[in-house]
Amino acid sequence: MAEIKKNILTQEGLRKLEQELEELKVVKRKEVAQKIKEAREQGDLSENAEYDAAKDEQRDIETRIEQLEEILRHAEVVEVDETEVGKVSIGCSIRLYDVEFDEEVIYKLVGSTEANILQNKISNESPIGLALLGKTAGEVAVVEGLEGTCEFKILEVIRD
């Protein structure tokens, strides 16, 4: 039997997923049910675009609810207070110096479920995340990429 992968989440990530699930179950389900009811009242369903759109939306909402419930069922919340001070770990922000681009960047290390590069949240499973895990300020993390290596000097580890 395959081992079930844990979904590593920060406390903030857990809270956001729970809120999204609550919104879908309490608000969105009612809204789409109302849309379906109104579309049914228009008569012939075989050529009713509003009905088809509402049913598609209902399917999407139910799919997302199932996804969220599965994520939360296998969630493992990382408590930043329980991590070693000064070491890069999940839930910490890391101020880095990118040697190649001669610039400072700040990333927050999160589980893959929460990762979003547009918000500077990188996964612990990503090449950069793996290279940073367990390091301390002053150390250099070398990241192997498709186009060579990148180096990041850790300037500061911030417990959020």
Description of the molecule:
- This protein is elongated.
- A hairpin with a 2-residue loop joins strand 6 (140-145) and strand 7.
- Helix 1 (11-40) packs antiparallel against helix 2 (49-73).
- The mean pLDDT is 90.
- It has 160 residues and is an alpha/beta fold.
- It has helices at residues 11-40, 49-73, 127-132, and strands at residues 7-10, 75-78, 92-98, 103-110, 121-123, 140-145, 148-159.
- The strands form 2 sheets. The chain has a 5-stranded mixed β-sheet with strand order 5-4-3-7-6. It has a two-stranded parallel sheet with strand order 1-2.
- 38% of the residues lie in helices and 28% in strands.
- The protein contains 3 helices and 7 strands; from the N terminus they run βααββββαββ.
Short account of what is shown:
With 160 residues, the chain is α/β, with parallel strands linked by helices. Helices cover 38% and strands 28% of the residues.
Secondary-structure topology with pairs:
Elements: E1 7-10, H1 11-40, H2 49-73, E2 75-78, E3 92-98, E4 103-110, E5 121-123, H3 127-132, E6 140-145, E7 148-159
Parallel strand pairs: 1-2, 4-5
Antiparallel strand pairs: 3-4, 3-7, 6-7
Helix pairs in contact: 1-2
Main attributes?
160 residues; 5-stranded mixed sheet; 3 helices; elongated; two-stranded parallel sheet; alpha/beta
